[in-house]
Specification:
The protein has one domain: Amidase signature (AS) enzymes. Helices cover about 40% and strands about 15% of the residues. It contains 15 helices and 13 strands. It is globular.
Length: about 425
């Protein structure tokens, strides 16, 4: 029998699966509760820019009927999910953060995959225009605000996805990550963000920014929820037995005092718990110049990939975005080639490190979330872009915070293809942080 006392919006993915299985709630009531929370809280946050009430309700009822008939599509059947607005959902508008929209005739590959598991899609989340930026200060759909800090950015470009999960409007969301666009919002919003190995999920049906760097990634409130949504079964890993290293290039990079303090305290916690932490270095690597190479690749590729949209509706692009795309159009082929070469060199170097070190830890971002009233720092993606260059899995875990402390994220990277090992190790670190 259902209980009416529990706030169902507090449930994560795994907890929602358990609640549905035990009959604590129906999918219909779970979706109903989420929609009510969206109605009451989204106005201030502006995390959702489209809410699919009728279809989500119908999908929840169908899930409940499958449960009664013993024909569930998967354990995730009936669980709600939000989706970044550059990922197509059949019948729901896609904007890619632009001042235009279209109604897709089919689901993106990732949406189809999850729909076939019975996931219920609540709607589309706000994002930085064309995914080319990290504040989600969208000129067409309005600013998305960090639910933890009034007037502050949630990060980007998947800022809406980070905000609605952190603000308990839904248990999890999909984002995309080109140079950190899942992990930056996760760090700013105090949640978990995972960028899997490149091509872990097909990007078919996702409006591209950079075919070289784009990856789909989930955001949730725990590592277990990320693994459950990703369909990965975690291992029991003794974190003390793992080869772990910090990246010296980032250890001494420019960062806010709160970031450095949180990172150093976390390293001490790991060391005190018996985890050995070595130190590795990428030769001749500068985070800022590497980030600029990634930005150039994104601008050049986006200019080509978004050209049809610009031809149809140039007014749908803000002047700032037009300037960035025009810069990409004018960039000499030699500069683009050199940037690609730089990225490939960094990939080889990092992969060589992973031959000796199983995991590499860094801060997720050089700064904590900042108010929209302040200038946007240029180095937001300096620590996250490296994983996109390498194509390796990377996760951002929230460090423990109290009182007025701003959120800080810990990034963990692993060699390409070791997604299960990374999440298993991250689960151990998450438990260690929460227990201290």
């Amino acid at each position: 029998m259902e209980t009416k006392k529990e706030d169902l919006t507090l449930l994560g993915v795994k907890d929602a699966v358990t609640a549905l299985k035990k009959g604590v709630c129906s999918s219909e009531r779970l979706i109903e509760t989420c929609l009510a929370k969206i109605k009451s809280n989204n106005g201030k946050m502006n995390g959702f820019i489209h809410v699919e009430i009728e279809q989500a309700t119908r999908d929840a009822l169908q899930s409940d009927n499958r449960r009664k008939n013993g024909t569930l599509l998967s354990p995730l059947d009936g669980v709600p999910l939000a989706v970044k607005d550059n990922i197509d959902i059949l019948g729901q508008p896609t904007t890619n953060g632009l001042g235009m929209h279209w109604i897709p005739s089919k689901d993106a590959a990732i949406v189809k995959l999850l729909r076939n598991k019975g996931i219920v899609f609540l709607g589309k989340t706000n994002m930085h225009e064309a995914a080319l930026g990290a504040t989600t200060d969208n000129p067409h759909h309005g600013k998305c605000f960090n639910p933890l800090l009034e007037g502050h950015t949630p990060g980007g470009s998947s800022g809406g996805s980070g905000a609605v999960v952190s603000g308990y409007l839904c248990p999890a969301a999909l984002g995309t990550d080109t140079m950190g666009s899942v992990r930056v919002p996760a760090a700013y919003c105090g949640i978990v963000g995972f960028k899997p190995t490149k091509n872990f999920w097909s990007t078919a049906g996702v409006t591209p920014l950079s075919v070289t760097l784009d990856t789909i990634g989930p955001l949730a409130r725990s590592v277990s929820d990320i693994a459950f949504l990703s369909g990965l079964t975690l291992k029991n890993i003794d974190i003390k037995s793992c080869n772990v290293a910090s990246l010296e290039n980032f250890d001494y990079a420019e960062m806010e005092d709160e970031i450095k303090l949180g990172y150093e305290e976390t390293k001490k916690l790991l060391l005190d718990s018996g985890v050995s932490i070595g130190q590795v270095r990428l030769s001749d690597y500068d985070p800022s110049s590497a980030r600029r190479a990634g930005l150039l690749v994104s601008e050049v590729e986006a200019c080509v990939l978004l050209e049809d949209f610009r031809l149809k509706s140039q007014e749908a692009f803000s002047p700032e975005l037009q300037t960035m795309l025009d810069f990409g159009r004018r960039a000499p082929a030699s500069r683009y080639f050199n940037a690609i070469q730089k990225i490939q060199t960094l990939k080889r170097e990092l992969c060589s490190i992973f031959q000796k070190q199983k995991f590499v830890i860094t801060p997720t971002t050089p700064q904590t979330p900042f108010p929209f009233s302040k200038d946007t720092p240029t180095n937001q993606a300096d620590f996250t872009a490296l994983a996109n260059f390498c194509g390796c899995p990377a996760i951002s875990l929230p460090l423990k915070r109290s009182g007025e402390e701003k959120p800080v994220g810990l990034q963990i990277m692993a060699r390409p293809g070791s997604d299960i090992d990374l999440l298993s190790f991250a689960l151990g670190i998450e438990k260690l942080i929460s227990n201290n």
